[in-house]
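Tutorial, part two.
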Amino acid sequence: MNPLVEFCISNLAKGAQETYDILENDPDIDVLEYGCLSYCSLCDQTFYALVNGDIVEADTPDELTKKIYQYIEENPLF
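Running the prediction step on this input gives:
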């Protein structure tokens, strides 16, 4: 079972697409995009993704990528 990372399409358009593309090419991570994840105020203020259901946020797409990998490493599924 791979970690699941979910993105809001609005946050992707804001700049998180860079992170999405990197994670999409990682065979050990499942990545999904949705029209809305219902975190509109967060989406408007920062870059974020849901990692296994938990919010991971950052100020830049590069930082978001690093924080997602760090979260996955520190919170293994099994």
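Residues 9-24 form the longest helix (16 residues). In part three we will examine how such features are distributed along the chain.
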